[in-house]
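thought: fold this chain, then report.
action: predict
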Amino acid sequence: MVLSAKYRDAFRPCLEALARFVAVHPNWITLTGVVLAGISAYYYARADWVAGSVVAALAALVDAVDGAVARYWKKESKWGAYLDAMSDRVVEGIILFGIGWGSGLWPQVYIIMLASFLISYAKARAAMEINVDNVDWPDLFERAERLALIVAGVPIAAQFRDGLFWYLTVLAFAFLFVGVTQRVHRVWRRMRE
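observation:
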């Protein structure tokens, strides 16, 4: 959320302006993001890193638009928020599966996926024990940041010999040892207070 929160407010007016022209139910937009993630995974699985990243970026854009559309058209609902959160995990998993298939780097992809899910779960589980809000969690490697690093970095790293191996290895350990550890430490500190 460190970078995500900083730039989310800057892009909010653009998303709200775009939402006026989108008269599709936000839940359908959310599900469109899942379909785009599947298409992205197809390209990644074929080792077409650029096309995979372009479609993954479109999936991320669609994910940003669904909330703006829900707010603008007064279609916000608990079900929509739940569907969006669940779809976020599915989208991330599908994209990573495609990268694993295309690169054969399953150990790195597994660690990235595990860390991503733990990062997401850390706040949800902490909320069952203590009061939590988004302001309290300015941590590294929120979902938007993880996707940005994957979408931007994978096609670049793939251009170099063993580049994808090293890039995914660094991401795996950064997500796991920085992102997860930071959140666990935050919860531990908050529970001691």
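thought: worth noting. Residues 114 and 138 are 20 Å apart (CA to CA).
final: tokens above.
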